[in-house]
């Protein structure tokens, strides 16, 4: 699995998860998370549209991403989840932690500040 940035705008980064998130790839994600937060990224969208599998260690990596982002006042949103991965996120109740969106554009719009009347 590879995680790579497809766009960075200010303190928002969009990461695309390609393949699976498991014990073989969790270390790579952890290193990237640390570098991103140190580089000033606070808000992250993880595009999961190409993610095929996720293990318990992969879920832990997503929680680490959430924790690190939250520690600097940011948040993580997931998008493009499908099939068994959606079921896993819901069964583990991680849908209470992560907001989930259909695609990157929906998630990006959720980061826009609310306009005051």
Task: Briefly characterize the structure.
By secondary structure, the chain is an alpha/beta fold. The protein has four helices and five strands.
Terminal CA distance: 44 Å
What is the makeup of the main sheet? 5 strands, mixed
Q: Please state the CA-atom Rg, rounded to the nearest Å.
A: 13 Å
Order of helices and strands: EEHEHEHEH
Q: Trace the largest sheet across and list its strands.
A: 1-2-3-4-5
What is the percent of helical residues? Answer: 25-40%
Number of domains: 1
Structural class: alpha/beta
Annotation, overall tally of beta strands: 5
The helix count comes to 4
Descriptive key words:
single chain; 117 residues; alpha/beta; Transcription Regulator spoIIAA; five-stranded mixed sheet; 4 helices; 32% strand; globular
Describe this structure in words.
This protein is α/β, with parallel strands linked by helices and 117 residues long. It has one domain (2-110): STAS domain (Transcription Regulator spoIIAA). The protein has four helices and five strands; from the N terminus they run ββαβαβαβα. It has helices spanning 26-38, 56-71, 83-91, 104-110, and strands at 2-9, 12-21, 43-54, 76-79, 99-101. The protein has a five-stranded mixed beta sheet. α1 (26-38) packs parallel to α2. The mean pLDDT is 84.
């Amino acid at each position: 699995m590879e995680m790579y940035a497809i766009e960075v705008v200010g303190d928002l980064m969009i990461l695309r998860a390609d393949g699976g998130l498991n014990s073989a790839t969790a270390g790579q994600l952890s290193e990237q998370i640390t570098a991103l937060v140190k580089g000033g990224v606070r808000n992250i969208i993880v595009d999961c549209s190409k993610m095929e599998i996720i293990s318990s260690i992969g879920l832990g990596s997503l929680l680490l991403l959430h924790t690190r982002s939250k520690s600097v006042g940011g948040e993580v949103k997931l998008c493009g989840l499908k099939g068994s991965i959606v079921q896993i996120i819901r069964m583990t109740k991680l849908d209470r932690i992560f907001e989930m969106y259909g695609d990157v554009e929906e998630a990006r719009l959720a980061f826009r500040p609310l306009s005051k009347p």
